[in-house]
Amino acid sequence: MTTPANERHDGIERSPVAEPRLVTMCGRRIEVRRLRLGRADRPVSRIALDVGEDRGGVPGAWASLTPEEARGLARLLLRQAGATEHPADDPFSH
Hints:
Shape: flat
Distance between the termini: 61 Å
Largest sheet: 5 strands, antiparallel
Helix content: 10-25%
Number of strands: 5
Structural class: alpha+beta
Oligomer: single chain
Order of helices and strands: EEEEEH
Number of helices: 1
């Protein structure tokens, strides 16, 4: 099926390269998906990060990231995970 060049393609789709969601210890569901916006001839692609509500119903958050921003967030998360697992290596733990 073809669509006119000026037709918008707004939607979120599951990424084939990542797990669709993670459930945290506090019950929040974190989902990572590809977000497609814009016209068919000039699509805009983002990574959608959706942090759902907790078990008590406290609302979560949502963010739209460029691929570069998503990689930056991944680096920050990995750095903090390493510092948490190995606090002796963390210069701020003293």
